[in-house]
Amino acid sequence: MELKPKVIFLAILVPIAYAVLVRLVFGLETMDEVVGIMTISFLFCLPTVVGILTVYMFDQDKTTSIYFRIFIPWVPVFGFLLVTLVLALEGWACWVMVLPLFLIAASVGGLIGGYLVNKREKNTLDISLLMLAPLLLSLGESTISPNLKTFEARTYIDIQASPEIIWDHVTRVTEISEDEDTGWLNKALGFPRPVKAELDYEGVGAYREAIFTKGLVFHETVTEYVDNKKMVFDIKANPHEIPSTTLDEHILIGGAYFDVLQGTYELEQLNIGLYRLHLSSVFSMKTTFNFYAGWWGKWIMKDIQRNILRIEKKRAENALP
Question: What was the pLDDT predicted at 245?
Answer without folding.
Answer: 55
